[in-house]
Amino acid sequence: MLNRRLLRVKVMQAVYAYHKNEDMTFQQAENYLYHIIHKSYELYHLLLLLLVDIRHYAFRRIEIGKTKFRPTPEELIPNTRFIDNLLLATLSKNKNLNRFVDKTGISWTNHPEIIISLYNEICQSELYQQYMADSNTDFEDDRKFVVKLCEKIISQYLPLYANLEEQSLYWNDEAEFVMNMVIKTMREFKNKEDHDHTLLPEYKDEDDKVFVTSLLRKSILYHTEFLKLLDKYLQNWDLDRLAFLDIVIMEIALTEILEFGGMALKISYNEYIEIAKHYSTPKSGFFINGILDNIIKDLRNKGKIKKISDELLALN
After folding, report:
1. Dihedrals φ, ψ of 285, to 5°?
2. Which of 13, 33, 59, 271 has the smallest CB count inside 10 Å?
3. Could you tell me if 51 and 90 are in contact, meaning their C-beta atoms sit under 8 angstroms apart?
4. Percentage of the chain with pLDDT > 70?
5. What pLDDT, in 10s, does the model give residues 173-187?
6. pTM exceeds 0.70
7. Domains (ranges, CATH) in the chain?
């Protein structure tokens, strides 16, 4: 389910935690990696549930309006297009989502304020008002509306991210990534009877789990050798002056480049530059770019861009 960049970020977090916690064992680091990946998967379901709960809140508002002592004409004959949205209705009945919710107990029950404020934000939007004014009830139109709702309003609603960070420390920097997975899921629903629609899996395939496990293990295993290698290419710099996260990022990058020979070198290289820009210091991307570039050029000239198990110890 998580794309490769987010999986790399999770490995970075687990490797960093291992080195910063002297009591953490190798196995605990691996378990921690699996745990934080699963928390992202939990967030994916929580954001799907958010759509369901916003629709349910809209339904309750309509029901309350009808029972008022003196309801307005709009409350007596409400516009129900939003709560009748065919995709949202289908999602609310999705067996896989409901099974996950029942199993884990995830809920927005303790955070009604975010449901209310987000619903009000939606109602004030031009997107919503145009949708409510259109009498078309075609499934495809309803799906397009939900996708745009996620893209233009929900994913842009900053109080939502603040709320998610309060709910879990693991969700402070990945909600935007996961929201893209929610949008992808919305696009894949076929019709209003698609109650068995398969949601995205925790790992795209077994290769992804092997990838993160191996990346974690070998980044930790060859930490000492990597420090020696980095020290060789740090002109006028002392390792002790570097942000430790930068060291971790470069070590994981080198692990991937040397170990996973089937991946395009440029893809691996650029991925870690972007991760450094986002997660480390403002200058880290530029700095890591220069160091890795020098190391890769030298290793390539020496024919050392091969499997780590055969070549790493010979690099120093």
Report:
1. -60, -45
2. 59
3. no
4. 92
5. 788 889 999 999 999
6. yes
7. 4-188 (no CATH), 222-314 (1.10.940.10)
